[in-house]
Amino acid sequence: MNSEQDKSSGIAAYLQLNDRQSLSLDGQWGFYADNMGAFGLKRSRNIFEGLNPVEEDRAVEYDVDAFEQISVPGDWNTQKKEWLLFEGFGWYARRLKFNQRELEELKGLGRIFLRLDGVNYATEVWWNGEKVGEVELPFLPLSFEIEPDACQAENLLVIRVDARRLPHRIPSEKYDWFNYGGLIRSVRLVSTPHEFIAHAGYHGTRILSQQSGEASVNGTYALQFQGIANGTDYEARITLPELSYTQTVSLTGDELNVALEGIDVQLWQPGKARLYAAEIELVKNGTVVDKITQRIGFKEVTWRDAELFVNGDPIYLKGIALHEERLGEEGGKPRGLEDVRALIDLAQETGCNYLRLAHYPYGEEWLRECDERGLLVWDEIPVYWEITYADARTEEIIYNSAVRMVELSRGHPCILCHAMANETWELPERKRVMGRAFDAIKKLDPSIPATAAFNAPYRDNAYDVESVGHSIYEFVDIVGLNEYGGWYNPPVKELPDARIVVGNKPLLITEFGAAGPVGADYNAEKLWNCESQKRIYEEQLALFERTEKLSGWTPWALKDFRSTLRANGFQRGWNRKGLVSQSGEKKPVFETVKAAFAKAEAALANRG
Ligand code: GCU
């Protein structure tokens, strides 16, 4: 998608950040919680005009300079008690003053984009009273072009975030996590030249030969440009300085896949990250008009029958599933990199080798962290439970979410697989709409397996996803099974012959576990305490250990997380299945998982 097409389809463009110069707009903004959506209807209520009731001496019903203060990035729910369950329209207002030098810096390259790293849920943007865009696309980067002439010494930026849960959205109205609304990730102004590299993603590593981590590989650099003038000579130049590698290719349009062939590299391995600097230049009539740098890695995922391989070696996936919710009594979206690192540090204490970033796309800083740490990543769009596939708006959000998530993530070596659904119900148009999304991501990133997490009812002593007949089962390369023996399904002790059926595709346990409220009376034989949580894990892990060809397993979840579905006395608005409490207090089951991961690692090493 490019900006012209994006404008026509009403979706904000994807502008990759890279190392571009940008002006951060993170910090304090004015905020108004508008549960009626009444503003913006007629002149006296158009917040985006920033009128002042006293100066105008008229019935102006708002005053952006009298709004309450709120921090960006961050959900609004955990910033003021009154806003905890607010799910309406959040109006954000920020007056931006630029001196002459700042204006020249902002305008100097030629184009200016307002870039939002992620919003929940829908977004509308006004700059100095003029609408610059609107989009219904949650949790993914959005960019809106600002005309340089519209940038003055004093400016008013107004953003309306619509966080309502609506049937046509993904997720729809009911889901087991908290609806944290607002500008949940960073906001900035990015300057680019008239013609520029909109995004570049190295992916598709294929190993030609390898010897203990050194390999000769093929790969693809997917490039997209904006502002390319017809009839002008452009070239794209890719340089990997450490490998003394340069390739220059003529441009024939605003998209280009550059084949990298027979490069000798050190592979990016789980647990042993290896990144290389990459420089991408756009050359016009022999002059470099744009240049970005990235850090890329060479890693291959392959699958054959029910076996999964990374860089040609069989892999046993020891996962941690989590929500993008920071540690602490209040929860809330991460407010910065330190919140993200605290969660990943905690996950890595278990000895995991992959993270299931459930159930929606996370901020790109998670992917950069996992690239650096050698952690594999399952990323996921929020097609969850009950979805109105037959609604054209739903179809568009699903398609755009799938494409945007893969455009964002495919350039990161940490990516293990792309997930398109979680426990979705068989509803009208599910197969057609999801087939389009799976098809789109396989075209964008054919070397990464597509997946989904499924339920499988316990039937005839078995959990057998294939036998359920999910209409989207044919689209997945890897099968995720959310299997709750001992919790939603009968206790394993009543199922001595229980088995998990692995068909002809790799199968991974993507969720299992039980609630373990910290402080509840210990009783291994009754639910709703940490002792029985631990016992259920032990029974489940024994079942996984005796399941031939299983590709791995993933406890649900790293930490207790907010969910209004969880309303009994043990939970009070929090899902208590975490390995740790919402503040990070480890439960006994944390050590159980850590020991089981170590045992699985040793078993794999013995398999040789
Ligand atoms: C489901 C679902 C999760 C949910 C979990 C639970 O499998 O995928 O989002 O939180 O079960 O019941 O705790």
Task: Provide a descriptive summary of the structure in words.
By secondary structure, this protein is of the alpha+beta class. Helix content is 19%, strand content 33%. The protein has an 8-stranded parallel sheet with strand order 30-28-25-24-23-22-21-31, covered by helices on one side. Strand 22, helix 5 (364-373) and strand 23 form a beta-alpha-beta unit. Helix 4 packs across helix 5, helix 6 (392-409) packs parallel to helix 7 and helix 9 runs parallel beside helix 10 (588-607). It starts with a helix and ends with a helix. Residues 1-9 have low confidence and may be disordered. The protein binds alpha-D-glucopyranuronic acid (GCU). Alpha-D-glucopyranuronic acid is lined by residues 176, 359, 422-423, 482, 511, 556, 575, 577. The site of alpha-D-glucopyranuronic acid (GCU) has 9 residues, from loops.
Brief summary:
This protein has 10 helices and 33 strands.
Portion in helices: 10-25%
Approximate shape: globular
Distance between the termini: 45 Å
C-alpha Rg (nearest Å)? 25 Å
Distinct small molecules: alpha-D-glucopyranuronic acid
Strand order of the largest sheet: 30-28-25-24-23-22-21-31
Which range does the strand content fall in?
25-35%
Total number of β-strand segments?
Answer: 33
Q: Which quaternary structure do these chains form?
A: single chain
Number of contiguous helices: 10
Question: Structural class of the helix and strand makeup?
Answer: alpha+beta
